[in-house]
Amino acid sequence: MRVGHATRRGDGWLTGTTVVLAPEGGAVAAVDVRGGGPGTKETDALDPRNLVQKVDAVVLTGGSAYGLDAASGVMAWLEERGRGVRVGPDPAHVVPVVPAACVFDLGRGGDFRARPDAALGRAAVEAAAGSGFGAAVAQGCVGAGTGAAVGLLKGGVGTASAVLGSGVTVGALVVANAAGAVVDPSTGVLYGELFQGGRVEYPPAGVHEAARARLAELAAASAAPPLNTTLAVVATDAELSKAQAQKLAGTAHDGIARAVRPVHLLNDGDSVFALATGARALEAGNPLALNELLAAAADVVTRAIVKAVRAAESVDGPGGTWPSYGELYG
Questions:
Q1: Rounded to whole angstroms, how far apart are CA atoms 232 and 128?
Q2: Residue of 19, 156, 171, 272 with fewest CB within 10 Å of its CB?
Q3: Which pTM was predicted?
């Protein structure tokens, strides 16, 4: 898997697009949508009952439903390379199936009409294709996380992964843009850090009180609607069926629920995609072999949300003010 970001900031812009690009030949794909206000494209094709078995890319984008146009740029790039579902005798006769989901960030840069389009989607997939194998993925206020917010705090993109005892890898990329909160209001600790094991470092009482006072001021001054969404792509090198991949996507939502409260609201569009490249077979004859992956998926999604919030940088511009967790708590 490769990841590419395209980011637009300044002159009314605060948005972007992120593309997860599968290897040649595609990856088995599934999705689980639990938010009450999703903005998506091609998710029906991922239903295990339907024809399409593999996809070549997944698009996560800002711009609300307008931003789904970014997927058109990714489709064009894939078509030029003959990648997609073969629909004719000519190898060039393909239809790339590019599932996409959007987050709400309209107007956060100051211009309501500044949102991703096909050109930005193409830039993101080109960045993904141009990245080296195993390249580090930029986190924080980049790509689809550029204009993200979590409650009154700045959100962003985060990634995390784990190599299991079986040798299978499970990784997650998250766009943290939730209507709910990621911070325990009584202590200032990130909810997600309570589920990562080890000792939790609680912010000093004075720091927490100052942060609460700042957030209260912002809440009183803000008129922005809480129209948000948390998106995730969970990827593995395991060999999975579409039904198994859908189960993986569904269980990964538990990772969001650990890190964001409340979650899956009517004004959220929370969606998790699962991708499986099939390089490693699960243990033959063991019907519970998938359990290890299911548990890991929720864990890496929680970790990725924490990393997204910690990597985010404060924004204070014409579209509003969102302090980062780092600014408030160090």
A1: 17
A2: 171
A3: 0.96
